[in-house]
Amino acid sequence: MAVFLGNIAQYVDGVDAFGLDTDASRLTRLFFQPVLVVWALWSAGAWRDRRFLCKSEARRTN
After folding, report:
1. What is the DSSP letter of 16?
2. What is the mean pLDDT of residues 34-47?
3. Which of 18, 26, 31, 39 could share a disulfide with 11, CB 3.0–4.6 Å?
4. Distance of alpha carbon 12 from alpha carbon 6, whole angstroms
């Protein structure tokens, strides 16, 4: 999340970094970054594990 906020600041301030030297390229990165995060969570099985953890936590509190 902090990296995403940093990328927003980079876009707003117009800072060049990592080969992103135009506002269009910085804005494109902002749209694709959440997609990459979702892909990483899906490929790691984080959503599958989260459902399992939520069910086991619900059983413990009842």
Report:
1. -
2. 85
3. 26
4. 10
